[in-house]
Amino acid sequence: MSKKANNLKTPADALPVAKRFLTFERRKSIAGLCFVSPWILGVIIFFLVPMITAVRYTFSDIQMVNGKFTLEWNNFENYKWVFTQDPTFIPDELVPSLTEMAWQVPIVVLFSVFVAVLIKDKFFGRTLARAVFFLPVIVSSGVVINILKNGIMAGQTVGGELEGAAYMFSAPSFTTIFNDLGVPAQITNIVSSVVNEVFDLTWKCGVQILLLLAAVNNIPSSSYEVADMEGATGWEKFWKITFPMISSTLLVTIIYSIIDCFTDSENLVMKRMMELVNKGAYDQGTTIVMVYCICVLAIIGVVYAIIGRFVFYYND
Questions:
Q1: pTM score of the predicted model
Q2: CATH of domain 86-168+203-310
Q3: Which residues of 70-86 are buried (b: 16+ CB within 10 A; e: fewer)?
Q4: Residues facing 60 on adjacent strands
Q5: 86-139: per-residue pLDDT in tens?
């Protein structure tokens, strides 16, 4: 009997050595790290390393010697050039880009919310409507949009000179009417730009509509049923149920729209950066991009700090 008793093992002793020392929570943590390891490697290789290299470029003079780049410390000369010597970057490129973002992002977000709420219910042709609104994302990511833009730019060129900005569809000019009404020229230009870019802006709403549509469909139907029993109107249901429940996704949508607006290929700063890079001025082009990136991050931080205070989460 004593030998049999000694041969019996407790459940803990019967487990393999690995399972004996790895608890369930620790095994879950290891499995999670395995899943996110490709993302971690991607961030290190494709973000951190290029970012560090770009920061080095901004503090250096870059020269090509025997087919290789050489970096020489220039004592902040690139930043001095951006802020004190370059006459066009801040007034003609950075400020207009910030101004365009200030009115483009609200229009894109509001239109995305409107469409997401509109196509969430079941109706005939709902799938087609969703496909139509998401189609611009596919088209804009390829060469089709470049062909369209280049064709429009060529159509507006007269005698080798560009007459104005290129829009997918252009509305009639309001300049004469607004001038007769005594409207300031700055407001006239803003209104004309908004009207002319309505079609272009709707092409930027595909991802935002998809995000908000997923958030709207995730709202429990019981919330609307209770509101109907209490006699709530559609307007009240939107502000008391829909808007608070999608506020977290709305914050993500706003941040995405800001980044998308700043990284647009038609952005003046992006065009200036490409011009400098094509000329071989990698140090100056990288410095402009770095200053631009800091401005974008500051704006995103302010937006998150302000709007994040009013975001509703389900566990609140």
A1: 0.73
A2: 1.10.3720.10
A3: eeeebeebbeebbeeeb
A4: 73
A5: 888 888 888 888 888 888 899 889 989 998 888 887 777 777 877 777 776 666
